[in-house]
Amino acid sequence: MASQGPLPRWRLPQAKWGQWVEKLKPIYRNLWKRARIYDAIMASVCGIRRDSAAIFALLECWCPETSTFVLPWGRSTRASAGEAPRRLSTTTG
């Protein structure tokens, strides 16, 4: 497991999860869509690569005094879980 805390999390999915999804997708696609879980299942087989350079570049834009990212096109707050970032201004600089 990847981390300790209130809920256990696994760093990598089960080895054969992707194969299982691909095998059952033709059979259960419509059922998964009706149950509104199809997109979640498809997202679970996608890989996300960490881009350390992009993370560090974004961190350089963080302003701790205002808790915002100062980006070339304006300031933006950090997003809470399940919330889209809010744009605070459209001024540059």
TrEMBL record:
Residues 37-77 form the Aminotransferase-like plant mobile domain. It holds the Pfam family PMD. PANTHER family: PROTEIN MAIN-LIKE 2, PROTEIN MAIN-LIKE 2-LIKE. This is Aminotransferase-like plant mobile domain-containing protein.
